[in-house]
Design a protein that fits this description.
six-stranded antiparallel sheet
């Protein structure tokens, strides 16, 4: 569903495939990326960036992520015990939260 679009303002930019089958049901006439798919993409992308498995600590959805042609940009910053993330679509924060690595949560 998400395709890499390079880097943008020190973040990882991705485009949403507007032809993805999930939009046929979620939701016709107002397509929205399901929250579970958004979280999976964030975890996968951050895991690739840090070279380790990551786990979601918290997430807040502030606006729907939509296949409207605007790329989404994932930005991260270090925090105590892990990383904070912000997912932007255009100039708007659509999701934010925190992750930790296996080493940071007692699993590794």
């Amino acid at each position: 569903m998400f395709q890499s679009a390079g880097t943008e303002n020190s973040g990882s930019a991705m485009r949403i495939r507007e032809d993805h089958p999930v939009f046929e049901m979620h939701f016709p006439g107002f397509p929205v990326v399901p929250g579970s798919m958004t979280v999976a993409m964030v975890l996968q992308r951050i895991g690739q960036m840090v070279g380790a498995r990551v786990h979601l600590v918290s997430a807040s959805f502030l606006a729907p992520v939509r296949p409207n042609g605007e790329p989404v940009t994932l930005k991260t910053s270090a925090s105590a015990g892990g990383l904070r993330f912000r997912l932007m679509q255009g100039a708007h924060t659509v999701c934010r939260g925190a992750v930790c690595t296996d080493a940071g949560n007692g699993h590794g």
